Amino acid sequence: MSQVTSLVQSVDWLAIAPPTLTAAVALVVLVADLFLPTARKPLLGWLATAGLAASALLLLPLLDGRRRTFCLAHPSPATTPGGERSALAANMPDACSYVADHFTLIVQFLVLGGALLTALLSIDTLKDHDLPAGEYWFLLLSSAAGAALLPASRDLATLVIALEVASLPAFALVGLRRGDRLSSEAALKFFLSSVAATAVMLLGVSFVYAATGSLHLSRVAHALAALPDPRLATLASAGVALTLVGFAFKTAAAPFHFWVPDTYVGAPLPIAAYLSVVGKAVGFSGLILVTVQGFPAYADVWGPALAVLAALTMTVGNAAALRQDPDRAHSAVRLLAWSSVGQAGYLLVPIAAAGYTHDPAHAIGATVAYALMYAAVNLGAFAVAALVARTSPANRLADYRGLYHRRPLVALALGFFLLCLAGLPPGIIGLFAKVTVFSAAVDAGLGWLAVVMAVNVVIALYYYLQWTAALFRPAETPAGEPAGAPRAPIPAALTTALTLATALGVALSGAPQLVLRFAAGALL
């Protein structure tokens, strides 16, 4: 009887509360959609928004320390035959499937905050495009629940499940504009490429399990450090490389980035914003976990691979963004898509640097700090794009010309967001984040990668400043907004999202040390 009770463990409900509440609200929304009349469907959006806000608030009680649950107990010497096996068990590290530490809380804050701003952007989009409210909010909350689960996952099985829970609803959200050819094509490209990447990643996970006999990251790291057979070491190396593929796809790292432009353009605009921020947070947090926690013994495999991916990704993204010309009928969302690919390259730099240093905490902190900055200002840029799309559905770069003369505050906000992404004053937080990433590469001895990053930052200045300058050029009358006509009021939810993003960006630029210190202890 004593042996049976030793296997029973209590669940730390407070630790798992943020993703659990998000999933519970998703179910409530789905059931409520069956009973609400059509005229009351907008209530579902406010219910979803309130649920995301409550889930984010549940992070506050977790700030007091590290919480773990769903852990494996060590076998005791009395129940383990043989002295050799008992010694091995005594040296085995703890194995928990869910850990709410500093890293987890930061990424969950980013995920839930990004989903909350996405929900605010979505409330009026659903009305304008007549999207099915119940399905939309259920899918968005389900994806957010999976994204919030992933940074707390500490075994490969939970990581893969969380990744798919975050991804599968996103496929449906991208294609939710029924009858729209671009939306259907975007969803199909996103789905097929993601499935292929997931299949490769699962093959890699199976190789790692075959070589180590465990799925828990702590025990995988322990086993990889002392593989007894060279053939197992070869198998493990292949598993490490293949596992990185799935997360490289989620981060939109080249050459796994090809789905990004068409997916962002074809998806509803709030979903494009969600994928650019929350989707990247999922990919980067998973990448950090498997490399730094699971595969530190194979840093000589994933370190150089990620350094090359970082250089290739930022170069491809910025070079493609240069082709988006404000004087032509090029899409603003497509420019933001290519910009997000370039930004993903910068985010990869500190993770690659972690493979070359004995103190990866500084490097991982640089990635987290950059991700927090990027999330705030990129969601703000998408909020302005959502506003412009109300009068100019094509959302061309030319539609932003003269925005300052029509909506001065909105134009100033977008200019600020673009300068943050470029790393220029007054976007001080963007400048500090880039300097932090740059210093992480230099400290790790990756001088060549720092040079590539510096060149790409200069290249990116061109298209960011070109778009910023267009905001202040002489106004042209855009489609749907005749000259002399009174300006339509900005919806309350969209105003709230834009105000929150602007306030966060300004606050961080006024005190950039806050986010840098906050992220400094991000390592597991």
UniProtKB/TrEMBL annotation:
InterPro entries: NADH-Q_OxRdtase_suN/2, ND/Mrp_TM
The entry's keywords: Cell membrane, Membrane, NAD, Quinone, Translocase, Transmembrane, Transmembrane helix, Transport
Domain NADH:quinone oxidoreductase/Mrp antiporter transmembrane: 153-459
Membrane topology according to the record: Multi-pass membrane protein
Primary location: membrane
Subcellular localization, as worded in the UniProt entry: Cell membrane; Endomembrane system; Membrane
Keyword Chloroplast: no
Pfam families reported for this sequence: Proton_antipo_M
Chain ranges passing through the membrane: 13-36, 43-63, 102-121, 133-150, 156-176, 188-212, 232-259, 271-295, 301-323, 335-356, 368-389, 409-433, 445-465
Record's catalysed reaction(s): a quinone + NADH + 5 H(+)(in) = a quinol + NAD(+) + 4 H(+)(out)
EC number assigned by the record: 7.1.1.-
Functional summary from the UniProt entry: NDH-1 shuttles electrons from NADH, via FMN and iron-sulfur (Fe-S) centers, to quinones in the respiratory chain. The immediate electron acceptor for the enzyme in this species is believed to be a menaquinone. Couples the redox reaction to proton translocation (for every two electrons transferred, four hydrogen ions are translocated across the cytoplasmic membrane), and thus conserves the redox energy in a proton gradient.
UniProt family annotation: Belongs to the complex I subunit 2 family.
Subunit structure: NDH-1 is composed of 14 different subunits. Subunits NuoA, H, J, K, L, M, N constitute the membrane sector of the complex.
Name recorded for this polypeptide: NADH-quinone oxidoreductase subunit N
Species of origin: Streptomyces yunnanensis
Name of the coding gene: nuoN
